[in-house]
Structures are given as structure tokens and as C-alpha cells.
């Protein structure tokens, strides 16, 4: 089984190389992309089943054991996030393929999109599976390089400006990341996370605090935690819908995953963190209020993305098994629903020719199916019963209610942010789907990647979006078994014993 752990990284890299070789055949590129991601999804199912039944699955690269060698580790949390992320990536790829067919014709080749798309998938998989900090840095750099290409393809001045903001902030966080790795290695002599779990506690308390705060800053930038969120609303909205959906669904969640992994494994605490609770509350409120101030649909969704990062941070801040499990469940739910909403936004833009909420209207009569595709994820994001969003928020609230005064106050902020999300989604529904039907506006830039103001929307684009809606519904239907898996994952994260034993073959920490 250990060889399976390498496949989610190797298959997309090999697929990326094959799509470069097949650059003159759009059909072959499409088949390679879909087959590779389908295979990775199947591998993720197998890894989740084995990890849930028998514990973490470890692959030692080159036969070198940890902590000297590079290891890939699939435990319950990483396998679960790998599965849901790959399913979302597959749906987004199908959407992107059919968008290009509708816009440029079935035989239009792409020598850059498919290789870079698969390379991004490999980076995401490596981030979930790596067992050491340096290869986590490598995973983020793979994602950065791939995402920069995707965000600036067939570019214009606005997207170059957004891309430069994204790259500048990402490179700054990468420099901080390298600095953090150097300091940790200099202090402990290792970058293996399982080994660090036993060595960080031997350092002076002040040095532990400094390293923990630096880790929080590095991954806080990646995850867009307030006040380190400023880059996200300026970077995501200008990209094509599939690219934005992929970024919103996956990249910030990888940052949250890295924070969750390092804070529980390397820098554990035995009580709620007041600093993280304050940051969680600020992130929830600032993001929600920012969304209410937007007329641009994509910017509104981007600010709501920031707000709900705060929900995940809240569970980590409470820092008990139930809260961490709630965070894991919320990540699973949010990956799906946020990607779906950005895909729906792309469909709306194609029908209306604009991202301005005030310039839209009457879409429920023009396209009832589009209204359904928006309504379900909107209700899910708002946390209306019995959606997966409600189940995940309820888990977080139950964990936070009995964790002290600060956690209870932060739970109140979570409720307020949820109500603001409901208001924001209701505002979009009333302005965009109700009212008088408005004619579509002409495409302001026919040369870019965003073809808008047209009814030429391929049915498979609706099918791909509907598939993600179906995944979100399935999460709600399977809330019981899924909650049981995340509960076991939360216990493992705080126990740390199963992870360290699987990687290092050592006795559990006491």
C-alpha cells in the first residue's frame, strides 16, 4: 500500500509531461487530464479506506527512513482532503474543457492550460501528503508557479496587475517560509514534522513561541487570514471562472491544512489560543462586511471566502478533538461549495456579460437551472439546515460553546458572520435572479479568456457544476459517517501518537 501514496503526486506530473508531448491534439490533452484525475480520485479512496482502518500509510522515498529521508504520509485527514480536492479538480477540469470547446471550437489546442493544470494538482497532492517542512515548501512553490501561469493566460492589463499582487505576496511568504525552515532546522537539526513533534518541546519557551508565530504568519498569508488577506480579493476575481474556482476551492484550504498540521503536530497547546480566537473573529467579520460592500459578484464571493477561513481557524483556536474535527469537516464542505459558487458565477457572467450585481436581473426566468445551481450552494454556504454547511457549523459551535469565555464569544461572532453571509447571499439572489430581465451586455474584451454576454454555454458546463452541487448534497446526506471519520482524524491530530509511530516507529509522546 505504501506505493499508492506516491501516485497522487506522480500521476499528475507524468500526465502534465504527456500533455506537453500531445500539445497539438486538444482531444488527447483532454483525455489525459480526465483519466489522470479520475485515477488519482480512485487512489485517494483507497488511501482513505486503508488509513481509516489501519492507520497512516507511509512511503519512504529511495528507501531512506525518516527523519533522514523524504517520506509521504497519508493519514485520515490528508487522505480525506486529497479525495475531495481531486473530485473538485476533476469537475473544474470538465467545466474548463467544455468552456474552451464552446468558445474556441472542439479542435482548439492548448499547449499550456492542461500541463499547468495537472502540475497544480500535483502540488496540492504533495502539500497534503508530505511529511516534512521543506517538501511542503516545494509543494507551495509548485502551486505558485502553476497558478501564476493560469491567472495570467491570454492576459490583459487588469489581470497582469492582479497577478503581480498575487505573485509579490506569494514570493514574500515564500521567503518567510524559507526563513522559518532555516530557523527550525538550525534549532532542532531536522525538518521532518514527526521528528519535530518530539524536538520542539526541548527548545526554550521563548524560541518555541517565536517559531510558532512565524509559522502562523507564513501559513496565515497562504490561507488569507485577516490582516494578511488583502491580496486575495484583488487577485482572484479577474481570473477565468475555472481558475478562480480552483484557487478558491483549494489553495487557501491548503494553507489552512498546513496550519492545522503544524499547530497540532509541532506546536500543540493544551488550551484555547486567545491569539487565534481573535484572528478568527476578525477574519469572520472583516470578510463578511467586505462582501456586503461589493457590487462585483466575484469580489463578493472572494470576501466571503476570507470570512469562512475564519470559521476554520476558530476550530483550530479552540484546540480540542471535537473542534479540530469540526474544522476538518468544514474544510471538506467549503472546498466543494466555494468552488461551485465560482463556477456558477462564471455561468452567470456568460449569460449577463457583466459581474456587476446591480446590472443583472431576471435570471430565474431566463435560466431556471442556473437559479437552482446557485441556490443550493448559496444555502449551503449560509449554513441553512439541513445542508453540509449547517452540519459543519453546528460541529464548530458545539465544540466552542464549552471551551471558555473567549471561545464562547468567538462562537457568537461566528453566528453573526453566518447571518451576514445569509444576507449577502439573499442580496445576490434578489438582485440577480429576481426582477426584470435585462439584456446581456457585450463582451468588453473579446481577446481575453473570459467570453461573456453569450448564451453559448455548453451543457457539460452545467453538468460539471451540478456534479459539485451533488457532492455537496452527498456530504450532507453522509454527514454521520463523514463526521465519524473527521472525529477520528481530530483525535489523531491531537494525540500525535499514530502519526509519529507510523513515520518514525517510535513510542508515542507522553
TrEMBL record:
Keywords: Cell membrane, Membrane, Transmembrane, Transmembrane helix. Its main location: membrane. GO terms for molecular function: NADH dehydrogenase (ubiquinone) activity. The keyword Transmembrane helix applies. The keyword Transferase does not apply. GO terms for cellular component: plasma membrane. It holds the Pfam family Proton_antipo_M. This is Na+/H+ antiporter subunit D.
Amino acid at each position: 500500500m505504501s506505493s499508492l501514496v506516491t501516485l497522487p503526486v506522480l500521476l499528475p506530473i507524468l500526465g502534465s509531461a504527456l500533455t506537453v508531448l500531445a500539445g497539438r491534439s486538444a482531444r488527447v490533452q483532454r483525455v489525459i487530464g480526465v483519466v489522470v484525475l479520475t485515477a488519482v480520485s480512485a487512489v485517494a479512496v483507497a488511501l482513505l479506506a486503508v488509513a481509516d482502518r489501519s492507520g497512516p500509510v507511509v512511503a519512504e522515498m529511495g528507501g531512506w527512513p525518516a527523519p533522514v529521508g523524504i517520506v509521504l504520509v497519508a493519514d485520515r485527514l490528508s487522505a480525506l482532503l486529497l479525495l475531495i480536492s481531486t473530485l473538485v479538480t476533476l469537475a473544474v477540469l470538465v467545466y474548463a474543457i467544455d468552456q474552451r470547446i464552446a468558445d474556441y471550437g472542439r479542435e482548439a489546442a492548448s499547449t499550456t492550460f492542461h500541463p499547468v493544470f495537472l502540475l497544480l494538482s500535483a502540488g496540492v497532492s504533495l502539500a497534503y501528503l508530505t511529511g516534512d517542512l521543506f517538501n511542503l515548501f516545494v509543494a507551495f512553490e509548485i502551486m505558485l508557479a502553476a497558478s501564476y501561469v493560469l491567472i495570467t493566460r491570454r492576459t490583459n492589463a487588469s489581470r497582469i496587475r492582479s497577478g503581480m499582487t498575487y505573485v509579490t505576496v506569494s514570493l514574500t511568504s515564500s521567503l518567510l517560509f524559507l526563513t522559518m525552515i532555516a530557523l527550525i532546522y538550525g534549532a532542532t537539526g531536522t525538518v521532518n514534522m514527526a521528528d519535530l513533534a518530539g524536538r520542539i518541546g526541548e527548545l526554550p519557551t521563548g524560541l518555541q513561541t517565536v517559531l510558532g508565530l512565524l509559522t502562523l504568519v507564513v501559513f496565515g498569508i497562504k490561507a488569507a487570514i485577516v490582516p494578511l488577506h488583502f491580496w486575495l480579493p484583488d487577485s482572484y476575481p479577474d481570473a477565468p471562472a475555472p481558475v478562480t474556482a480552483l484557487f478558491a476551492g483549494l489553495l487557501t484550504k491548503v494553507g489552512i491544512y498546513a496550519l492545522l498540521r503544524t499547530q497540532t503536530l509541532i506546536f500543540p497547546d493544551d488550551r484555547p489560543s486567545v491569539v487565534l480566537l481573535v484572528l478568527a473573529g476578525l477574519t469572520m467579520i472583516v470578510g463578511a462586511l467586505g462582501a456586503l460592500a461589493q457590487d462585483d459578484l466575484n469580489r463578493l464571493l472572494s470576501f466571503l471566502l476570507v470570512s469562512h477561513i475564519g470559521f476554520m481557524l476558530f476550530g483550530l483556536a479552540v484546540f480540542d478533538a471535537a473542534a479540530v474535527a469540526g474544522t476538518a469537516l468544514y474544510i471538506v464542505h467549503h472546498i466543494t461549495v466555494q468552488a461551485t459558487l465560482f463556477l456558477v458565477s462564471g455561468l452567470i457572467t456568460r449569460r449577463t456579460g457583466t459581474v456587476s450585481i446591480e446590472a443583472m436581473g431576471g435570471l430565474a426566468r431566463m435560466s431556471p437551472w442556473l437559479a437552482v445551481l446557485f441556490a443550493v450552494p448559496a444555502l449551503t454556504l449560509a449554513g441553512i439546515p439541513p445542508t453540509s454547511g449547517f452540519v459543519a457549523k453546528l460541529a464548530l459551535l458545539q465544540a466552542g460553546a464549552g471551551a471558555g469565555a473567549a471561545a464562547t464569544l468567538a462562537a457568537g461572532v461566528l453566528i453573526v458572520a453566518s447571518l451576514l453571509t445569509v444576507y449577502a447571499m439573499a442580496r445576490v439572489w434578489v438582485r440577480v435572479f429576481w426582477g426584470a430581465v435585462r439584456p446581456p451586455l457585450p463582451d468588453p474584451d473579446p481577446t481575453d479568456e473570459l467570453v461573456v454576454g453569450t448564451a453559448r454555454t455548453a451543457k457539460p458546463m452545467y453538468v460539471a457544476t451540478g456534479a459539485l452541487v451533488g457532492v455537496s448534497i452527498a456530504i450532507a446526506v453522509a454527514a454521520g459517517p463523514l463526521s465519524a471519520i473527521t472525529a477520528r482524524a481530530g483525535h489523531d491530530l491531537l494525540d500525535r501518537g499514530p502519526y509519529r509511530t507510523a513515520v518514525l516507529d517510535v513510542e508515542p509522546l507522553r
